[in-house]
Design a protein that fits this description.
There is one protein chain. Among the domains are: 84 residues, D-Maltodextrin-Binding Protein, domain 2 (3-Layer(aba) Sandwich); 88 residues, Alpha-Beta Plaits (2-Layer Sandwich). The strands form 3 sheets. Strands 1, 2, 3, 4, 5 and 11 form a 6-stranded mixed β-sheet that branches. Strands 8-7-9-6-10 form a 5-stranded mixed β-sheet. Helix 1 crosses helix 3, helix 2 packs antiparallel against helix 3 and helix 11 runs antiparallel to helix 12. By secondary structure, it is an alpha/beta fold. The chain contains 12 helices and 15 strands.
Length: 365
């Protein structure tokens, strides 16, 4: 068989497989519609069914990755199935998800990574607004940044958890790659100003010191805002990611300029529904302790005694008094696990206040 005949045979095989894939995706979508009908029929009149189940979504993706034999890697395969699930869910009920805008931010990228492109994404001007929109029921979920591997905790998000009663339903980890971007009118030899979010400027500080030591660094509300500003100026550049670059039609003049190649940001999914255990969960709590010697030791001792692995602990000033603090703690496991229930009961006895923010599936990717 000649190379040309072999290619024709392979293309015919691919066409046949595409037809089967199309048929199976359509069948899955029909199943999703039936699921919606069954849920609505089984509820009392006037009740609203829950279509999006974080624990179910996490299980499906993990199951697909376990079954995956390549040649596509797990991340790519999970991304494909995420989009299929997103489109099928939209047939049941299109989700409205608030994120820190404007369009083109890393928070929007995190929302799409977690929910897929078929959700209705709603940009918000501030983190606190995301919490308010979720609390008001204007959107089902919100996506907020909580910590960066280079710069640490996002204090606005932590403070918003003190002010609002929200449930954490999930988490997303996003690799953050920063690029130096210019507009079509930018004169590259005349760049005197670089726009970006304050955290992004900090994450690229060494690179800027080495390549643009005398350029003014201007912090703006978001990287997307930086990209928008550059479009109308001839002497400025922006630090932003792929989404902002594509959305605002900019050109990269330097790729991946972050100082640390493993630079990542963790985002939380906030909503109102509690998430059942999946067997691979995390829990987040806020604890306020009495201001006395050994308070931190008493707080951590139940975790140690029960063999609970802490993944993060942060301290923020309390709103209740001067020089008093609250602790934000993330740990592995679900609040319904017996050992964790025991630890939380002990902490509740020792603390001024204990607030469980939620138990949720660990980030799949």
């Amino acid at each position: 068989m000649s190379d040309e005949d072999q290619l024709k045979a392979l293309r015919k095989r691919i066409d046949s497989l595409d037809e089967k894939i199309l048929e199976l995706i359509s069948e899955r979508a029909q199943c999703a519609q039936t699921v919606a009908h069954v849920k609505q029929k089984s509820l009392p009149e006037g009740s609203k069914p829950i279509f999006y189940r974080p624990e179910r979504e996490a299980w499906v993706l993990k199951h697909i990755m376990e079954l995956n034999k390549g040649p596509l890697d797990n991340e790519e395969m999970a991304r494909l199935f995420r989009e299929i699930m997103s489109a099928c869910l939209a047939l049941e009920e299109p989700l409205r998800v608030a994120y820190l805008g404007p369009e083109g931010t890393f928070t929007q990228a995190a929302a799409i990574k977690h929910f897929g492109h078929s959700v209705i994404s709603v940009p918000m001007a501030a983190i606190d607004e995301i919490f308010r929109e979720v609390a008001a029921g204007a959107v089902q979920f919100g996506v907020v940044p909580v910590e960066n591997s280079t710069e640490g905790a996002i204090n606005h998000t932590l403070d918003s958890f003190l002010e609002h009663d929200m449930v954490i339903c999930g988490e997303v980890e996003l690799r953050i790659h920063h690029h130096l971007l210019i507009g079509e009118n930018t004169k590259t030899d005349k760049i005197s100003r670089v726009y970006s979010h304050a955290q992004s400027l900090a994450q690229c500080r060494k690179w800027l010191d080495a390549h643009y030591p005398n350029v003014e660094r201007v912090a703006v509300a978001s990287n997307a805002e930086a990209a928008k500003r550059v479009k109308g100026e001839w002497n400025s550049a922006a630090i932003a990611g792929d989404m902002a670059c594509e959305l605002y039609g900019l050109t990269r003049i330097a790729d991946k300029i972050e100082d640390r190649p493993d630079n990542s940001t963790r985002f939380l999914i906030i909503g109102s529904q509690m998430v059942p255990p999946t067997g691979d969960d995390k829990t987040s709590v806020i604890v306020s302790m009495r201001n006395k010697p050994g308070a931190l030791h008493h707080l951590l001792q139940p975790f140690h005694n029960n063999g609970i692995d802490l993944s993060r602990i942060e301290t923020r000033p309390s709103r209740s008094g001067k020089w008093t603090y609250v602790f934000f703690i993330d740990f592995f496991g679900h609040q319904h696990d017996p050992l964790i229930k025991d630890a939380l009961e002990q902490i509740n006895e020792e603390s001024v206040a204990l607030k469980v923010l939620g138990s949720y599936p660990k980030a799949v990717l």
